C-alpha cells in the first residue's frame, strides 16, 4: 500500500514538473517574440501582411498576448 502511494506521489510530482517545464519554455518563446516584435512587424509588412498580429500566439497558455 505504501509503495502504491509513493509511486502515485512520484507520478504527480513528475506531471507537475512537466507542466512547469512547458510553462518555462512558453515564457522563453513569448519573451523572444516580445523582444523582436518590431522586427516581426517589418517581416510581416515585407510578406504583404497588413500588420503583425500579436494574437497569433494567443493559443499559448500563459501568454501575455492572449485576449
Automatic annotation (TrEMBL):
InterPro entries: TBP, TBP_dom_sf. Pfam families: TBP. Keywords: DNA-binding, Repeat, Transcription. SUPFAM superfamilies: TATA-box binding protein-like. One of its GO terms (biological process) is DNA-templated transcription initiation. Transmembrane segments: none annotated. Gene3D superfamilies: TATA-Binding Protein. GO terms for molecular function: DNA binding. Signal peptide: none annotated. Belongs to the TBP family. This is Uncharacterized protein. It comes from candidate division MSBL1 archaeon SCGC-AAA259B11.
